[in-house]
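Input record (one chain):
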Amino acid sequence: MPFLGGSALKEAYRRAQRGGYAYMANNIAEPNTFIGLLDAYSEAMSDLLVQISPGAAKFAGGGDKLAGMRAMCGLVRELAAKRPMGVFVNLDHFTTKEMDLIETAIRERLVSSIMIDASDESFDENVRISREVVRMAKGSGTLVEAELGKIRGVEDEIASDDAFYTHPDEAVEFVNASGADLLAISIGTEHGVSKGRTIQLRVDLAQAIQTKLRAAGLDTPLVLHGSSGLLLHQVKDAIRYGICKLNKDTHYQYVYSRTACEFYVKNAAAIVPPAGVEDDVVDLFSKSDWSPNKKLFDPRVAGRAVQERIKWIAGELLAQAGSAGHAQAIEGTADAG
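The corresponding structure, as predicted from the sequence alone:
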C-alpha cells in the first residue's frame, strides 16, 4: 500500500479506540530500523506508524534538517509502496525552532501528522503555539499532536530534569483552545532508559483525562511518550484507559547497537589486524600477509543482522499494543488522504 495521510490515520485511531488496542509509534533515523519495522508489520498485517524527530532529520540530512526530513519521507514512501499494509509518518517533538520545517511538511504533504512540542512553555503560550500549527495544517489533512505536561529525561533534542503531570481539567481546556487532534499526556513515564518496575505510572490520570474529554464531547486520542521502559501490564493498563499511541525510540536504539556490537565483537579477528601487524588502513594492508575479511566487514552484513533483530523486537512490541491484524487494507477503509 502507499503512504497514508492524516484522514486514514484518524480512522486508524478511531478503530483503535473502539477496538481496545493502540499503535506503537516507532522512531527512525536511517534505513535499517525502518526495513526491520516494515518486515515485522507486514507479517503482522498491522498499519505502521513511524516517527522522524528533528535530530533524526538532522542526522539523515548530514546536518541539514530539511534535506533529512525530505529524504526520510521519500524513503518511507518508496519502500512502503509495495507492502500489504499502510504506513504513516509523524514528525516527533518538533518545536518552535522547526516551524519552517513544519510549514514545509504541511505544504508538501510529506507526513500524516505533526507533533508540536511546546510543553516547556506556559499553558497559554503552549495553547497559542499549538493553535498556530493547527491553523497551518487546516485543509491539508495533516493531524496535529500537542503535549500538555512534561516528561522527565532526555530524548533526541528534548531534555527535562522535571516531570509535571497533566491535569484532567486543563486537558479539556487545552484541547478546546488549541484544536489539537491528539494529546500527549504526562502520567509518569520517562524519556530515555527507564525501568518500568520503578515508574509510578498514573493510569488513573489517563482514565480521568479520557473521561473529562469525552464528557466535553471530545473523543481525542491520547499519546504516551517515553514508553520504551514499560512492562507489558503497564502497556495494557495505559491502552485500557485511553492511550492510542505509545512512542518507541530508545528501545530500537538499544537493540540496534546491541546487535551491531555483538556482531563486531564476534567477528573482530576478521576485521581488526592482530598484534604485530601494521595497522595499514590507508593501503588496505597491502604490505602485510594478513587481510580483513570482506564478507564480514561489509556494513551490509551487520546491517542485515540489525534488520532481523529490529524485526523481532518490533513484532514483540506491536503484539503488546494489539494492532496485529488491523491493517486498513484488511478492514477495507484504506485511503491515501
